[in-house]
Structure formats: structure tokens, C-alpha cells
Design brief:
The protein is mostly helical and 53 residues long. It has one domain. The chain is built from one helix and no strands. InterPro entries: DUF1656. It holds the Pfam family DUF1656.
């Protein structure tokens, strides 16, 4: 049986391969930083928005 979705050498496949190699580490770092920011912001929110600063 021949695979219809075999698109060897097409720019789209190269783009998808590049995305799978380079995108996830950046996305993981961004997501981790966002979660850390959410946690810190939740802890310091009252102090940040109070008039005592």
C-alpha cells in the first residue's frame, strides 16, 4: 500500500520538521516562564497593587 501523505522534499515537510526540532524547546521555556510568572504574580499581587510601595 502506497502512502499518499509522503511529501519528501517539499518545503512544507521541511518546515514541519524544522518546527518539530526547534519550536518545542522555545515553547517549553516560554510556557515554564509564564507559569512561574503566574505563580509569583499571584503571591505578590496584593503587595504590588497596594498603596504602600
Amino acid at each position: 500500500m502506497k502512502c499518499i501523505l509522503n511529501a519528501t522534499g517539499l518545503p512544507l515537510q521541511d518546515l514541519m520538521l524544522g518546527a518539530s526540532v526547534y519550536f518545542p524547546p522555545f515553547f517549553k521555556a516560554f510556557a515554564l516562564g509564564f507559569v512561574i510568572w503566574l505563580f509569583i504574580h499571584r503571591l505578590l499581587r496584593d503587595r504590588i497593587y497596594s498603596d504602600e510601595i
